[in-house]
Amino acid sequence: MNGARLLVALLILGSPPLPASGTGGTASADGEELQVLLQGGDLSGLATTLESLGGNVTHSLPIVSGVGGNLPRSMLKTLKLSPGVDRVVEDFNPVEVPEERDCVLDGSLQLEMSDREVRWQLFNFSDTAKGLKSIALDWPDRIGALESARLNAQDILTARQRPQGPAHLSTDRISLPPGASTLSLIFGESVVASSQNDYSIIASADGCSATLIPAYPDNDHEYYYTRVVGADLLHAEGVTGKGVTIAVVDSGFWEVPPLAEDTAGKDRVIARFDAIENKESAALLDQSGHGTHIASILLNSGAAPRSKHHSYLGVAPDARIVPVKVFDADGSGDFLDIIRGIAWVIAHREQYDIRVMNLSLAAAPRFEYWRDPINQAVLKAWQAGIVVVTAAGNEGPAWSSVGSPGNNPYVITVGATTDSWTPVDRSDDYIPDFSSRGPTPTGHAKPDIVVPGGHMTGIVPPGSTLVRDNPNYQLRSGLYVATGTSQAAAVVSGIAALLLQLDPSLSNDDIKCMLTSSAEPAINPDGTLRYSPFVQGSGHASASRAITLGEKGCANLGMNIDAAVLGTEQLLGPAEVDSNGAPTLPGLQQRLRDEPAEGASQTVHWGVKEHLERLDGHLSADRLGPLNIEWLQKYESERAKIESLSTSD
Predict the structure, then answer these.
(1) Same domain, 84 and 183
(2) 10 Å Cβ neighbour count for 510?
(3) Is the peptide bond before 405 cis (omega within 30 degrees of 0)?
(4) What is the tally of structural domains in the chain?
(5) Facing residues of 148 across strands?
(6) Is 611 a catalytic residue?
(7) Mind listing the pLDDT tens digit for each residue in 179-196?
């Protein structure tokens, strides 16, 4: 396919991250043909001009006052000077060198255990055999000695080796063939009562190694993120997104029962649009798997059997869905198709009562948001009343790495947190490096909020690109574990549906205000922020807190969406540069101590309640300090509001 392309903002643990600024195709690399978007007042005249110069029209896009198509590169200058052509947006398509993996060796996310045997799959992602140097092991004492160790049926232990505890096994004579290999360990006693977190396995090759990572107790049946954001509490009260339609603009949709049907088993796919083929389709084949995974996080209607409440695996399990396909099997999409997909959603908003649009995509901003054609379409979606939720991107930790359209100041831009595989313990939650940081090129603070985006379990089609490229992230059940701000955005789209079920009169500005005003920032003991607002936004969002503590009337103040759509509003944000050249905000330097935080922390707490309760006994004004006095005032305000709610009808 000719033309500029955006790559889905998806990052898989351990794999080469897909560049959010991405490009693809070969059109402009050979200098023959270029994809262009022409903007002007007369679409018919623009089409005639393009065709008169030897081009062909592929897209009619009145939403951005333009037409798109292909043009001989030699005619580009003539096109730009043509009467009636106000602007020409060219594709951006440099030659890309595929990013290599940090290590061609990796392991499955999941151990298999039966009787006295533990099995772990190792993957060699190169095209040639890879020599394995050693395997370091540790296991619980109660399962006895290691009696056998084999890799692809080849013995690792010598006849005399029967280690009782930690072992370091030499494997110099063993090579891993390309693809999957199986490490089999047999112990003296049954392993059935043990868990994956009882074991340590590190397989080392030249220059890199594969390490068994921790696991949730039951990742096949309990996904945990609904609990982390308080959606499970709402499910128990019948708040499941019922009656709310979400458009998922992505790579397609696999219509299996947990996704195509709601909790009552009723069909909830009310329309489908293929923006690549420009047609409403009976089914949208998802060769990538990304769109299905996003939809799974949003609205999986399967029950969560381990939940203390009557809850479901998806955040909004009864929401209706309108899938819109703009990405191909590689997870890349033509920017003209993305605009066409957004335009279709807006045009059919009333027909299908579309209230939320999920955009789990990001590209490096090339223009100010008001000049970016995709953002111009997104502004019209916001003007139409649609809650637009976007991924921040996976290009962190560099400053100003938030992608487009997440750089749009109107929309809800979402960064990611990860829980270190301990969902009920927030002390080790942190914002991973991949989550893109603000400020935007126009100085706006982004992301707006953060939510879980690390190791998120969901459904993907068998044989999809995600599975082929990273089979080590597929669980035995066929479910797939992925990480990224794409997944985080899906969580927030689901929360928006829950809020809209409770109060359909809420505007998109209301939803944004409720989420940001109730979010919980990461706070140090002295009351300073652990992360800059350019990293955590307003903090960690929660569905239950948004409902009980969320405010209205605080989002997008002083902004005029009608003027933004007309192009007469061109807002610059408040970001500044400090003496060290780092971005900051007025007054922020005294309120921030942003040392890197990863893993368990004895000092960082998320939210005012947890922060102040750890200081219990030290809450007198003379001991708190000025910042904590402010947090105490907020704490008292939140407590009073909750007490008022608990005593009201």
Answers:
(1) no
(2) 20
(3) yes
(4) 4
(5) 186
(6) no
(7) 999 999 999 999 999 999
Q: Is 14 inside any structural domain?
A: no
| Residue 138 contacts residue 166 (beta carbons within 8 Å) | yes
Residues 202 and 253 in one domain: no
In a domain, 147, yes or no: yes
The CATH number of the domain where 67 resides is what? 3.30.70.80
CA distance 402 to 526: 29
Catalytic residue among 232, 250, 328, 509: 250
Same-domain pairing of 158 and 244: no
Q: What is the pLDDT of residues 191-215, one digit of tens each?
A: 999 999 999 999 999 889 999 999 9
Half-sphere exposure of 471 (CA within 13 A, CB side): 13
Residues of the chain with pLDDT under 70: 1-31, 92-98, 159, 306-308, 595-602, 616-624, 649
Same domain, residue pair 36 and 80: yes
List pLDDT tens digits, range 350-388: 999 999 999 999 999 999 999 999 999 999 999 999 999
For residue 474, give the DSSP letter: B
Q: Which residues pair with 182 in a beta bridge?
A: 121
15, 288, 486, 538: which one is catalytic?
486
Q: Round to whole Å and give the CA distance between 562 and 568.
A: 9
Whether 558 maps to a domain, the answer reads no
Sign, CA torsion 625/629/630/635 = positive
Distance CA 422, CA 444 (A): 33
Could you give the CA distance from residue 612 to residue 356 in angstroms, rounded to a whole number? 35
Domain span at residue 631 reads: 607-649
Assigned domain for 217 exists: no
State how far the Cα of 537 lies from the Cα of 555, in Å rounded to an integer: 13
The reply to whether the predicted model has a pTM over 0.90 is yes
Active site residue 290: yes
Of the residues 82, 181, 274, 290, only one is catalytic, namely: 290
